[in-house]
Amino acid sequence: MTSTIEIATTWVRACAPTDLEPGWGEVALLDARRVALVRVAGEEVYALDHRDPHTGAPVMARGIVGSRGDRPTIASPLHKEVYDLGTGECFTDPALSLRTYRTRIVGGMIEVELDG
Questions:
Q1: Which of 2, 63, 82, 110 has a CA-to-CA distance to 53 between 20 and 30 Å?
Q2: How confident is the model over 2-30, as pLDDT tens digits?
Q3: Are 57 and 51 in contact (CB under 8 A)?
């Protein structure tokens, strides 16, 4: 017999996609967590930990948004490590990774999935 551990998740409403400027990050306080929201284009929105994995400083919403091929990225404003917005993988230092969260648009509002 195998057992499955289920982690409770909650979708938390953040803001409307139009509240975010394309190509820029903003910080949202969601259930006592600082989450950086980045709107790339249209309603394509990414959510990630606002804390820089290298320094621990709360700065990722001020990162530089770009791309590597067809993969949207954000670079830390401090040391310029480049992270994949979808997976959190660090292109410049494989030892680092950025926490990412799933997003969805419901009723014209961005919702971010947070684990319990």
A1: 110
A2: 656 666 789 999 999 999 999 999 999 99
A3: yes
Instruction: Name the pTM for this structure.
Output: 0.89
Listed residue (37, 8, 43) closest to 24, CA to CA: 37
Sheet holding 82-84, edge to edge: 64-68, 71-75, 82-84
Residues 48 and 101 sit within 8 Å (Cβ to Cβ): yes
91 φ/ψ sector (left φ>0, alpha ψ -120 to 50, else beta): alpha
* Alpha carbon separation from 8 to 5, 17, 61, 114, 115 (Å, rounded): 10, 26, 26, 9, 6
